Task: structure prediction
Amino acid sequence: MIAKKMLKYVEGSSVTRAMFEEGKRLAGLYGAENVYDFSLGNPSVAPPAAVKESMIRILQEEDSNKIHGYMSNAGHEEVRDAIADSLNRKFGTAFSRQNIIMTVGAAGGLNVILKSILDSGDEVIAFAPYFSEYNNYVANYDGVIVAVSPSIPDFQPNIAEFAEKITAKTKAVIVNTPNNPTGVVYSEETIQALAAVLEKKQQEFGTAIYLIADEPYRELVYDGAEVPYLTKYYNNTIVGYSYSKSLSLPGERIGYLVIPDEADDFENLVNAAAIATRILGFVNAPSLQQLTVARCLEESTDIAAYDANRRLLYGKLKELGFACAKPEGAFYMWVKSPEKDDSAFVAKAKEFNLLFVPGSAFACPGYVRIAYCVDKTMIERSFGAFEKLAACYDLEKPTAIREEISDK
Ligand code: PLP
Result:
């Protein structure tokens, strides 16, 4: 008999995953080329060649104990040095290895930091729509997630409601920019406003509130959009980074946390994070992957391929009259459901073998997420299905397509 606590997870297993399974079922029925699966955020672009070359060279050149052995829970020292140096060059920060903890992806990093800071009943604020796994990660440590409702139509955080929802129990706030599921990049103005509210509330309650920047999509931005580095705006920021998307390595499970010297209770916090890495059972982030990413710090996946997909799909959605948040980053489009019930819209789309994830899976009903980290030819093949779907609704056709994303 499994634990009672686990039953609800088994019963309500992820909607995104369920759509992915549905895609496989439909592909069996209609042929893979006739199913248009936009449900999963699995990078479609291969890792840069330097990743494979580095792995081979490490395996040939490095001492095998070093590659395959245990190390300190925070990770290889020289890897953490290299990451700190690279961040300092890019963002003008002053980090050292003490500020870097290697993690098992962003998911591992979020769990490590939440385990380190949450006491039972502590509140963690997230801005809807948000990555639904946050609910599980916060519940893992008996925290309580508090959702701030979306700010429509720009999907920047709703600052007024945020200020109202902070209480003496608020321990952390998670922000994710570029955002999954909206593709929106939070502006510098938004970050400054968030930081100002947090400073004020820390004073008011006499508490420390950590701002956790969940950044797996930092490098995936288009049209020159800038993603502010949050430690520069608020001392109590902790960054959770991942190479899952920037180097297309989601299965390798590698990322890191940045805990700046200025963070409240710094010494205890870095020690707690290293211990959490151990006692959650990760022990350390995968060694070969640590050594690999340290050699690929200036590399990035081929953003141009995602950008081409973005332009193609966005143009079509607009032409058909769908309303969509301006997609500036990540590889998702956030589309308004033309009927109130987003699950009904997802079901309608499925009739044409189009697979999306309903907004309710991100605490934001009335929308759907379309992941465009797919083969470009699949987007092209899907246009007929999108046209049939659009024909089911009375969409307002624009007389001219408003170019919201710049032409290259
Ligand atoms: N945070 C967000 C917003 C994500 O979209 C994802 C993965 O899709 C993660 C965290 C987890 O990433 P990782 O594979 O690095 O654990």
In short: Residues 86 and 350 are 45 Å apart (CA to CA). The pocket of pyridoxal-5'-phosphate is lined by residues 41, 105-107, 131, 176, 180, 214, 216, 242, 244, 250, 255 (CB under 6 Å). The mean pLDDT is 95. The first helix runs from residue 4 to 11.
